Amino acid sequence: MIRQRWLWLGLLSVAAAAWSHAQDPDESFGQRLYGPEIWRLPPVNDFSALTPSGGPDIAFQAPTALVVPHYEMLPAPRPEAAPSTGEVPAAPSDVPVGEERFNVKPERKKLWSGSFDLGLDGSEGNTETFNFRFGVHTRRKTECNVLTLGLDYNKQASKTVSTEDRLYFDGRYEQLLGSSRWSTFFHETIEYDQFQPFDVRDTSDIGVGYRIIDREDTTFIGRLGGGFSHEYGGPENGRYVPEAVFGLQVERQLNKRQKFIGTMEYAPDVTRFARYRLRTQAAWEVLLDEDRNLNLRMGILERYNSVPNGARPNDLDYAMMLMWKF
Fold this sequence. Notes:
The chain is mainly beta and about 325 residues long. It is about 10% helix and about 50% strand. The chain is built from two helices and 14 strands, in the order ααββββββββββββββ.
């Protein structure tokens, strides 16, 4: 009986060992069961987390492997070679030029313009003559107003005897009315003439103007107003004559080098329309040197006074002068 009992126990032990080997092919069950270690360390090549030992009947799912980020150092950008032809590389299209380092100041519009006129001729010997003409004209234009100033002086002599000595000033202030073609103006003239019955005559008038044609190459203005004229010396000394004023002004840029200018002003006495003054002027300018703004000016001026007071009613001046514009 005792031998049979030990025999059965031995067979059961062998069967249990075979069964455990079939369920644990890595042969670690016996070590986990009888060994002092409770946890099994994974092989070197196995990166799964440690799995607790719970026996052959307990299944454990290992957590996902830990992903370690991989960092690479990017290569440093190589500097671009400077252009060999002296060209400056263009700035990126989304970055305006000049805004990153400094602000570009807007270009200021030119307000003042003008010219100097000069004419000189003479002779010596059997005939002694001297003729001198000088003029300066300035113009200031803004979006709101236009200011024009002009000064002309003529001097002629024959054998040291003066035949002409005349100074004429003309100033006009014109107030623009926004985008309208209408404008208002104030006009003043001062005239000195040695060979007129008066010593000095000044006129003042105000009124409205209308730009009949207003293009870049052509300007045609009509004016209507009223004022007075006043003479110092002569038969009309100290008398203020009320006058109406009708005027026309045209400027035409014929081409890049030629320009035509014309003005007409009619001023009748409002108490007696038979008494009037008429002033007509025309000039043709030709550009000679574009770099130096040197021009040739040929002009004609006709002045008529219906009440000459002993002098001739008509004076006609014509001249050819060099003009420097600025």
